[in-house]
């Protein structure tokens, strides 16, 4: 192992383990500068998705993967998978809620992913996404301006941290009690348009951040063509003239985040409506020029379902809980650490336990909340154990890339995605930062 490889390991681990915010930023900048020198750029997938809206992509679904723990190890595994399969279109993402309970701020998440690319000798665009920038419906009803401002601050921090792909989730504001479909979607499309305008104001010069909208909250009733058209018509009316809008739309077709766990700890069977997904993706492309429809909550689906996503014109699929489950359930994950985590959950997550839940159901749903408090314990596992866990999950990544058809698309990505180096400077009197984009060398 070369000196440079050992150096990047140390910088990445120091970044992950330090609680000193200034040191974290300093180490993140060091990694970003090293990445630029090797041709590794945090990038927007917008142009590729718009090409999809013009029918210029060929039958693959982009995997968007939430790394809640062991991020450095698993990102390395993803880059190895990408190199092996000549893949260029894949996304690293983390949701607004996950940033909190996994203790991974955007500046850390981006730098750790770039460090993984450096370690594995991957170069080119790297797509990093803020998943579910979600509006809290209750807080919005109480004080809409305050809730929007909180989301703007979170989005500004994400962009400042190198996230050039932002998924807005204002679908929580859809009001199904109204009879008129456009009125049902009104708060959703208005907030989505407002946040899009904010993103266009703070995005780096020369970079069009990829923005996603959402018309149906995951776990609720399935989306319809009428929902999509009502949302898009209202969104286009409310978006300031001349501004670039969203590049994709998330829809609900029957999944739930993390799956539905039964009393014995197994996952209940899901009835996913692929025909709805196909129809909505086609409408999004043909009528509105978007890349297509996005499916959330898919990582716990049966393996035989995944090939159906590209067959049904799905643009992007979000995968999270399944990787977390594989880590916790690996034979290489120490039983004593798992017991320590579960004992902590009994005390610190007791309020989340629903009446009648078995231990298996409670721990399955709650254990993600321990990932931040036990971050140092997990990353402090012997390297051999982490390597073996990552190797198991790498086999899953390889399976998913192949099933989703996300292979041999590197040339397409290079054709449509322009590399931009971003210089960050402070903006006065506004949350976030100003970024100046420069063309890649």
Overview of this protein structure:
There is one protein chain. With 441 residues, the chain is an alpha/beta fold. The chain has a single domain, classed as TIM Barrel (Alpha-Beta Barrel). It contains 18 helices and 11 strands. The strands form 2 sheets. An 8-stranded parallel barrel has the order 2-3-4-5-6-7-8-9, surrounded by 6 helices. The chain is globular and about 55 Å long. The two termini are 28 Å apart.
Structure characteristics:
single chain; 441 residues; alpha/beta; TIM Barrel; 8-stranded parallel beta barrel; two-stranded antiparallel ribbon; 18 helices; 49% helix; globular; disordered C terminus
Write the layout of secondary structure elements.
Elements: H1 3-17, H2 21-37, E1 40-43, H3 46-53, E2 62-66, H4 71-85, E3 91-95, H5 96-101, H6 106-120, E4 124-134, H7 137-142, H8 144-160, E5 165-169, H9 181-202, E6 210-214, H10 225-238, E7 248-251, H11 274-288, E8 293-295, H12 308-311, E9 314-319, H13 321-329, H14 335-348, H15 359-366, H16 375-379, H17 383-403, H18 410-416, E10 420-426, E11 433-439
Parallel strand pairs: 1-4, 2-3, 2-9, 3-4, 4-5, 5-6, 6-7, 7-8, 8-9
Antiparallel strand pairs: 10-11
Question: What's the N-to-C terminus distance?
Answer: 28 Å
Poorly predicted runs are 256-262, 427-441
Give the domain tally: 1
CA-based gyration radius: 21 Å
Q: CATH-wise, what's the superfamily? A: Aldolase class I
CATH topology: TIM Barrel
User: What percent strand?
Assistant: 5-15%
Label the overall shape: globular
Helix-strand string: HHEHEHEHHEHHEHEHEHEHEHHHHHHEE
